[in-house]
Amino acid sequence: MQLHRLGSSPRYVLSLDDRLVEVLVEEEPRGFNVQLGGASYQVETVRGGRRGRAEQSDSFVDGRWTLRAPLTGVVSDVRLELGQTVGPGDVLLVVEAMKMLNDLRCRVGGVVSAVNVTKGQRVEIGEALVEISESA
Prior knowledge:
Elements: E1 2-5, E2 11-16, E3 19-28, E4 31-36, E5 39-44, H1 53-56, E6 58-61, E7 64-68, E8 73-78, E9 85-86, E10 91-97, E11 100-105, E12 110-115, E13 122-123, E14 128-134
Antiparallel strand pairs: 1-2, 2-3, 3-4, 4-5, 6-7, 7-14, 8-10, 8-13, 9-12, 10-11, 12-14
């Protein structure tokens, strides 16, 4: 898959295996309007450092880290189980959104204290997916 911009215009060509798809991207005050295959999508961007959705995607309170869904999608793989020891960078879950697989990684070291999702389950932005307790 490749994306090529056409000059300095807001038009792009997306190469997908054996076909080409035209994409139109227009910047708006809160993000972008993306037109792809006749459908229009609003993409919200987060400005001003780490505030916004990136900050909402996980939290660390009282020795417990909670991974929250950074996007809406379907859990395609659960790569952990209750009581398992995990470390920073470990892939905990894979969530499919818009036909793309997204690895959700651990940011702390510890022990899995809760797994709130199963394979095939639909998740919404902000939903608590996994809890990791700090290692002693």
